[in-house]
Amino acid sequence: MNEQQQQLSRAIGFLFDHLRLILFCLLIGMAAGLAWYLQKPKVYQASALLMYQQQQINPSRMSPDVQTRLQEMVNTVGQQVTSLSNLEEIIETNNLYPERRQRQPMVDVVAAMRGNISIQPQRDAAVFRVSFTGSEPRQVMLATNALAAKFVEENIRFREQRVSETLAYIRDELAIAKASLDKQEQGMRDYKLRYYNEMPEQRAANIARLNTLQTQYQNIQNNLQDLKRTQVLIQEQINLRQDILARIAEGQTGGAFPREAPPTELERIRQELQNLQDRYTDNHPDVRRLQNRLSALKAELAAIADPKDETVSDAPSAPLQPAHDTQLAQLELQLKEIEISAARLTREQEAVRQQIDLVQQWVDTTPVREAEWAALTRDYRQLQQHYENLVARSLEAESAELLEQRQRGSQFRIIESAHLPNQPFSPNFRKIMIMAAAAGLGMGLMLSYARDFMDSSFKNVQDLENFLGLSVTCTIPLLPTAREKRWARLGHVFWFIALGTGFALLGGGMVLFWLRGEIIL
Questions:
Q1: Coiled coil where (predicted)?
Q2: What is the pLDDT of residues 242-266, one digit of tens each?
Q3: Among 45-54, 57-66, 281-290, 325-334, which range has the highest average pLDDT?
Q4: What is the CA radius of gyration of the chain?
Q5: Which of the 8 DSSP states describes residue 59?
Q6: Which of 348, 371, 390 is the last residue of a domain?
């Protein structure tokens, strides 16, 4: 016999030697399991299946379907369903926990009910199960259906509240954004009215205006120079006329004035004019001035030589009065007009100069205004974009609120209501009895092993040879007497009758309790 056969033989022998103890422990364990099952209250469970039906119409960004994921929606609505007010209403409506309500406050009763509620997602992501456990099957069924109905009701209320709060928030933000945008627009209007001529879009017009003013200023300057030259010529003519009249007044005593005037001044002017004509053209101002002066001098000399001239008189006592000379008065009048014109042009020139300075200042400050205006417009564009986004979101929120009010949004739908539970959810009879039988067998084996371990006698030849270190040549079997054999048989019969009776009573009790409905398989 090899070693494995020896070990198997020892195991079988061990079981036969301790069979009564093992069966007794098995009987005790199963009896204890039955007793524990019978004394444990029955707990029933009912379940309802709900499906989250997505919104048929395309949801906007303000819809709760977009803002909240399905699992978050289930968790949020589940918290609302299991709130104190909702569970208290379900407890009172279905008369749950009557004994506990008499001994404990409602808060503790609601906390106990929350522990009996289970919300579990199914394989389909849009389907989940709502379960409730309790001691009364009908109350469990009613409470489960009430919880499922609360899911539908609270989801509708939650969605309406969510979109209403979102719409109110967006409207508040829209009012704030509109006020900021109006303030920014007012600031931009004030800035543009204040610095209109310095704005970048006026730069080209300002430069063109500046060129026009500079041209106008140059024209006025040229006119002033012409007036000054004319003024010098007229002043020379006045001086010459006054000189001639003075000479006439000094040299005339009663006869006619000599018809030929001294040519000294006339020759000098001719000589200067000839010198200038050799170097310049006839349009040169100095040439024109001398020509005018020469013409005036010739005219004066011709007037003096004319006997009809009122400036020559035969009466020595009536000298010529220069103040009454008509030509001199005309020259003085022209000089006065030129002075007035020159003063007017000087004022115009100063005004144009001021306008040039002002326009030049506008052109110089244009880059500064451009940078400031760019900052204002950048802030305005950001505010305008934010305002337009809020307007779009407000329209979407209003649309979402209208859909929720018409109950066109996503909803929880009960696809399977809770049914009356026929079997208790807990305790599980099969599971308890299997565990009790396993515990009894384990206890029997443990006690058998302990009993065998405490027994110091030799059980077989191998143990003796190992202990003595000698080979056993022969063995003598146990030879009991007739009396010992009789008592041994009686002992075996007693144990088997006792164990059989015990197992029979245990099985009969199980059948009896099953017929009475206290055991539910």
A1: 210-237, 328-355
A2: 877 777 777 653 443 444 444 566 6
A3: 45-54
A4: 66
A5: P
A6: 348
Are residues 122 and 140 in contact, defined by beta-carbon separation less than 8 angstroms?
no
Alpha-carbon span 414 to 152, nearest angstrom:
8
* Spatial CB neighbours of 306, under 8 Å, sequence gap ≥ 6: 312
My answer on whether 166 and 54 are in the same domain is yes
Grouping H, G, I as helix, E, B as strand and the rest as coil, residue 412 is: strand
For residue 411, report the phi and psi dihedrals to the nearest 5 degrees: -140, 155
Q: Is residue 358 part of a domain?
A: yes
- Count of structural domains within the chain: 3
Give residues with Cβ within 8 angstroms of 269, minimum separation 6: 290, 293, 294, 297
Query: In this structure, are 396 and 268 located in the same domain?
Result: no
**Residues 56 and 130 grouped into a single domain:** yes
Structure tokens at 203: 């730069």
Q: Are residue 60 and residue 162 in the same domain, yes or no?
A: yes
pLDDT tens, position by position, 392-420: 888 877 776 776 666 544 577 888 888 88
Indicate if 394 and 329 belong to the same structural domain.
no
* Overall residue count recorded for the chain in this entry: 521
Whether 139 and 157 share a structural domain = yes
Integer Cα distance of 128 and 120 in angstroms: 6
What the block records as the tokens of 186 is 């007012």
Mean pLDDT check: name the lowest of 27-36, 95-104, 134-143, 454-463: 454-463
Structure tokens at 369: 């205004």
How crowded is residue 147: how many other Cβ atoms within 10 Å of its Cβ? 25
Residue 43 bridge partners (DSSP): 426
Q: Does the residue 3 lie in any domain?
A: no
What pLDDT was estimated at residue 317?
40
Give the count of beta carbons closer than 10 Å to the beta carbon of residue 172. 11
Measured CA distances, 226 to 143, 221, 284, 285, 350 (Å): 114, 9, 12, 9, 18
Is the distance from CB of 76 to CB of 59 less than 8 angstroms? no
Please enumerate in sequence order all residues whose Cβ is within 8 A of that of 467, keeping only pairs 6 or more positions apart, or say none. Answer: 458
Please give the Cα distance from 426 to 134 (Å, whole number): 10
Structure tokens that stand for 256 in this block: 């006619």
Two structure tokens written together for 179 = 């006020």
Statement to judge: residues 400 and 496 lie in one domain? no
Residue-range definition of the domain harbouring residue 19: 8-40+427-515
If one counts every other C-beta atom within 10 angstroms of the C-beta of residue 499, the result is: 16
Q: What would the mean pLDDT of 453-468 be, rounded to a whole number?
A: 70
Confidence band for 319, pLDDT divided at 50, 70 and 90: very low
In-domain check, residue 301: yes
Same domain, 228 and 362: no
Phi, psi of 45 (to 5 degrees): -130, 135
Last residue of a domain, one of 368, 395, 425: 425
* CA distance readout (Å), 157 to 152, 236, 401: 9, 108, 12
